[in-house]
Amino acid sequence: MVASGLPTPRPDHAEALVNMGIDMQRAVDLYNTNSNQHINIRIGINSGPVVAGVIGEIKFIYDLWGDTVNIASRMESHGVEGRIQVSETTRDLLPDHFQFEDRGAIQIKGKGEMNTYLIVS
């Protein structure tokens, strides 16, 4: 899990995450080429408010909670191997230089039907 815009908000948080996802895909492709492997990843991104904090008494862990986190997880688990899937909320925050493939409304566990999009470029 990765978060952008925490603890300091940034107006380009969605774009930064998509660019990181693209970089991750390139790294996996390079690894596959160099090691003769065939590993794929799914990336899901959602944007919105979260609750964040440190938990634990002996071993401290910084964690995130909330509906935004749950939807991001669903974007990944209901996504497509080798692709970045974003929620409509995130798509609306991205600049025009990204292109999208509209997946239409898909059934998202715990949320019902949601419009989702795959990053094309």
TrEMBL record:
Q: Name one GO cellular component term.
A: membrane
Database matches in Gene3D superfamilies: Nucleotide cyclase (3.30.70.1230)
Q: Where is the Guanylate cyclase domain?
A: 1-76
Compartments, record wording: Membrane
Q: Which UniProt keywords apply?
A: Lyase, Membrane, Nucleotide-binding, Transmembrane, Transmembrane helix
Record CDD domains: CHD
InterPro entries on file: A/G_cyclase, A/G_cyclase_CS, Cyclic_nucleotide_synthase, Nucleotide_cyclase
**Gene Ontology terms for molecular function:** adenylate cyclase activity; nucleotide binding
Q: Which Pfam families match?
A: Guanylate_cyc
PROSITE patterns recorded for this chain? Answer: GUANYLATE_CYCLASE_1, GUANYLATE_CYCLASE_2
Give the principal location in a single coarse category. Answer: membrane
Please give the SMART domains that the UniProt record associates with this protein. CYCc
Biological process terms in GO annotation: cyclic nucleotide biosynthetic process; intracellular signal transduction
The positions making up the signal sequence are none
Return the similarity comment: Belongs to the adenylyl cyclase class-4/guanylyl cyclase family.
Protein's name according to its UniProt entry: Guanylate cyclase domain-containing protein
Q: Taxonomic lineage of this organism?
A: Bacteria, Pseudomonadati, Pseudomonadota, Gammaproteobacteria, Candidatus Reidiella
